[in-house]
Specification:
The protein contains four helices and eight strands. The mean pLDDT is 94. The chain has an eight-stranded mixed β-sheet, sandwiched between helices.
Length: 184
Amino acid sequence: MIFSLKEYRLKNGKKYSIRSAEESDSKDIIKYRQEVTSETNFLLTYPEEIDTNIEKMMKYLRDFEKSTDRLFLLVYMNGEIIGMCSIVPILERIKVKHRTTFGLTVKKEFQGMGVGNILMNEIIENARKMNYEQIELEVYSNNKNAIKLYEKHGFQKWGEIPNGYKLKDGTYNNCIKMGKFLKK
């Protein structure tokens, strides 16, 4: 799905824009993912697990552009990616085609400035446009800021998986399943 460019201002007044990811963004997306995964343990992937194959990323982005049930958004400021999110179906099966999930990241230095709120609004609005009936996510139980953001946007806790995440150091964290019904 294609998303037209929108411009916003951070709480500090600086401008940023949100638009659909394009094939030409592949190198920047890979770099961003490596950077943001090195900033926190709250993401599913470690930096060394990021696939750096540009051709694969280009194909991945082409698939998003052609799709009517997927969306990949980038947040840019001064030519640099500062955030991203994507909406994808839970599975490509008839019984679950009414459900979607998403991922959202914002560079650490831009967190708390309103970018996450804007992305959440866009995710929810576009999931509705794609005719999804519910939107779901998984989050680390100790990621209080993310949980607070999701709750602010109407997500509720639907369950918890004990030891759902295992870090390199051998420690565990519970995985909280959250969701929101989109039909009004």
